[in-house]
Specification:
Layout lengths: L13 H14 L6 H6 L3 H16 L6 H14 L3 H13 L4 H26 L24 H14 L3 H14 L3 H24 L1
Helix pairs in contact: 1-3, 3-9, 4-5, 4-6, 4-7, 4-9, 6-7, 7-8, 7-9
């Protein structure tokens, strides 16, 4: 049972209705995604989410919209958000990711949990007991996909950041630079992820 009910367009206050109109303009003839109607319960949040979503998730910037859709899918997977997973599954495929690549995005996201858990432990233990000991974990997913290496690193950076793994985040930023990702592209990947993470947390709590 939902804790907060969607606010239909016809029942929205004037301020919320104005934001819905801006959201509808962004999506054109497509239906407004259902999460926006939940965000309509709090107009300032709806307004902020819309503005950040349009700039950092939906349109081209330092990263193209296709790359941002992959990041959005990864974050929706992390946040276990069914509505946003459905949205980004469809958006990824509409922007040219194949069904195989969509599955690979999910698998790369999941693989980060394994490495983030391991390296975060070594970092948080505050001990040198584990220095020099091998990782021992297999991670073919990072190098054996049909995804381009830059996309994989963007996902790695974003999920490692959300998982608060400092050594992983630092290592992936360095690798991203080596692959030719600009500072602006990596920052925008985080802005995209931060926007979606906020939206997912609100939606999960509301549901």
């Amino acid at each position: 049972m939902s804790r907060l009910l969607p606010i239909p367009v016809a029942q929205a206050s004037e301020k919320v209705a104005q934001q819905y109109a801006r959201v509808q303009e962004m999506f054109g003839s497509e239906e407004i995604p259902a999460p926006f109607l939940i965000y309509g319960n709090v107009e300032p949040f709806l307004r902020d989410f819309y503005m950040n979503f349009k700039k950092f998730v939906y349109t081209d910037g330092a990263l193209d919209a296709k790359s941002k859709a992959a990041i959005g899918l990864a974050v929706a997977s992390h946040g276990k958000s069914g509505p946003w997973l459905d949205f980004f599954f469809a958006r990824c495929q509409s922007l040219g990711w194949t069904a195989e690549q969509v599955a690979e995005i999910l698998a790369v996201t999941a693989t980060n949990y394994m490495y983030n858990t391991f390296f975060k432990f070594r970092d948080l233990s505050g001990s040198t007991l584990f220095d020099g000991m091998g990782v021992g974990l297999r991670a073919h997913m990072f190098t054996n996909t049909s995804l381009d290496h830059k996309t994989v690193e963007l996902i790695n950076i974003v999920i490692s950041d959300i998982n608060a793994c400092k050594p992983c985040t630092s290592g992936h930023v360095t690798k991203g630079k080596d692959l030719g990702l600009s500072n602006e592209q990596m920052l925008e990947a985080i802005q995209c992820a931060a926007t979606m993470y906020a939206g997912i947390q609100f939606l999960n709590a509301a549901s």
